[in-house]
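Changelog note: in this version the structure field was regenerated for every chain. One regenerated record is shown below for reference.
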Amino acid sequence: LELERGRHPHLVVEDIAKPPPPEGEGELKEVVHTSSGCRCDAASKCARSGRPFAWCEVQNTLELGEGAQGCKVLEKADTDPAGTSHELIHEDQDGTTPKAWKREAHRFWDYCVPPEVQGVENEAHKDALKTAHFNCRCAPRPDVLMHYEHDPEYMDDNSLNTLRVPFKDRLAVEAMLQYTRKHQEKHQHASTSADLCVKTRSSGGFSVCPVSKECAMDVATRSGGQAPSSWFAGVGA
């Protein structure tokens, strides 16, 4: 998985997965929420569509005159923490945009978790939250936090300066700091999986979470042994 800044090319309109036709009259379509607080458009299915993560076209509430409604990719935050643009383009757009496309409203995508995939994850790991990225789930990573929180290289006086933490671990560390504080506030009450999937100082309005060690090891294996990122995009509450 290429999660370093600016390594993903644009996603294209032609790759948008279409939902299956309704099985009966009046069938209600499940609303799928996305990492930056949007909703998947009714004409777009949350699916991988050739990527290592699930995504969908977001409902453009701006075009409906309803405002952004908290959807960050519609609020000009259309580049995610990994430097990936969330504006959809057409497949053969190469700098000379046809007039028909110039008249077309801007279209955007976002990370999402297919409901059926989350259901399978719940069967395998009770109450776990699936990430948008393939074969991963949110999980506490105190080992990642401990690696940085007492190292003078990353400290300002007695506080951890997360901006000094390498990008591949920064969002996991920030999420773990929030998770730890929330756990302390709850005293003896256990924190939930939802507490792991949060917007952080550096996430730019996208929900992210630390991921399980098994996931990180699997990513390293499939990427030729390269050091994996310890965070992935999720869908926060």
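Spot check on this record: The CA atoms of residues 31 and 169 lie 31 Å apart. The first strand starts at residue 55 and ends at 57.
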